[in-house]
Design brief:
alpha/beta, Nucleotidyltransferase, domain 5, 5-stranded mixed beta sheet, 10 strands, binds 5'-O-[(R)-(carboxyoxy)(hydroxy)phosphoryl]adenosine, binds zinc ion
């Protein structure tokens, strides 16, 4: 008998409610994926304001849940288990989702699973491309995360190979967009501007690629500073800033480092599959370069469609389904949100 899993996401600025069906053969089918975003409320601040995000989750949680059930043509009483993002993320934002999930689980008398947001970004790929081979590698790139992970078991065993030591990749996009007077979030407008620019116009630095640097860690703050210096230099000389060239050269530096390190990890570990997920996975140059380099290295590349890459509830429902299918223990109703939940803890 198949089971319905509801997933709730509220770690950052997206309130997501997803519904999936876990079939007896272990496959997971997407039934609904409703998201309410507070991104527009943060735009004028150039980044997510935690208190504003928490308030928006509070207002959106019930309407988003209603929409998901309408979309799937299901009733609350059809739900067999509830998964919720327990961390990492913004404390106040996480708390809204965790509280809602506990209330639904208690009211419906179904098990609750507090799960890891980062693992959800990987699990979501199974909704589009089917079961993931184990082991596989995952590169998570978003406004909040930049991590290279080794996945031995999606439901229980994920190891961090490296992560950013300063800014996340998406954060670098957002900061550089601000320098170039492009709107927030900065990824899409930079991607668009870069299409008309020359990626070799400016040789921006490739962070953490020195012989003594950690092989699989990343750094983007030096790159951001280099772009700022370059733009200031042009302005000081009274020259117009060639936005397409700066955008293309910056984007090239980010895509180069991300793909080089991910492919190196695949080569050194002998792992044949790489999943790239998170908002920055939507970047056209990142996916093109990853495709090129993975093909050359004989690595299978999986990139979920953009809608699944950004934060959503379906990714949490998908992970919940894997955790349920693996027979992992359910969470206690007194779990709390953990803003610093390590990726090695898939469910709490
Ligand atoms: O996963 P996401 O929606 O939210 C979290 O941060 O968790 O990712 C948002 C980030 C933003 O920093 C945004 O600028 C970036 O993803 N992004 C992109 C593109 N689309 C979104 N970065 C580069 N190129 C894009 N096309
Ligand atoms: Zn995320």
């Amino acid at each position: 008998m198949s089971r319905i899993i509801m997933g709730i996401e509220s770690s950052c600025d997206e309130t997501g409610v997803g519904l999936v069906r876990l079939h007896d053969d272990g496959t997971v089918e997407l039934l609904a994926d409703e998201v309410a975003s507070s991104v527009e409320q943060h735009a004028r601040f150039g980044g997510v304001v935690p208190e504003v995000a928490s308030r928006a989750h509070l207002e959106a949680m019930v309407p988003t849940t209603r929409r998901a059930f309408e979309k799937a043509a299901l009733k609350l009483s059809d739900v067999d288990a509830i998964a919720v993002t327990a961390g990492p993320g913004l404390a106040g934002a996480l708390l809204v989702g965790v509280s809602a999930a506990k209330a639904y689980a208690a009211a419906l008398g179904v098990p609750l699973y507090g799960v890891n947001h980062l693992a959800g970004h990987i699990a979501v790929d199974t909704l589009q491309h089917g079961p993931l081979p184990a082991p596989c590698l995952a590169l998570l790139v978003s406004g909040g995360h930049t991590q290279l992970l080794r996945v031995d078991d999606l439901a229980s065993s994920i190891t961090e190979l490296g992560s950013t030591v300063d800014d996340a990749a998406g954060e670098a996009y957002d900061k550089v967009a601000r320098l170039l007077e492009l709107p927030y979030p900065g990824g899409p407008p930079i991607d668009k501007a870069a299409a008309d620019g020359d990626p070799a116009a400016i040789a921006f630095p490739r962070g953490m690629t020195g012989p003594r640097d950690a092989k699989f860690d990343f750094s983007f703050s030096g790159l951001k500073t280099a772009v700022a210096r370059w733009v200031e230099g042009a302005q000081r000389r009274g020259e117009p800033v060639p936005v397409p060239d700066v955008a293309a050269s910056f984007q090239e530096a980010v895509a180069d480092v991300l793909t080089a390190k991910a492919v190196r990890a695949a080569r050194e570990s002998g792992i044949g599959t790489l999943v790239i997920s998170g908002g920055v996975a939507a970047n056209s140059r990142l996916s093109a370069l990853a495709r090129e380099r993975c093909a050359a290295a004989g690595v299978e590349l999986r990139v979920p469609r953009p809608r699944l890459c950004t934060d959503n509830g379906a990714m949490i429902a998908a992970l919940g389904a894997h955790v349920v299918a693996a027979g992992r223990p359910e969470s206690s109703l007194d779990i709390s949100a953990n803003p610093a939940l390590p990726v090695s803890t898939v469910s709490v």
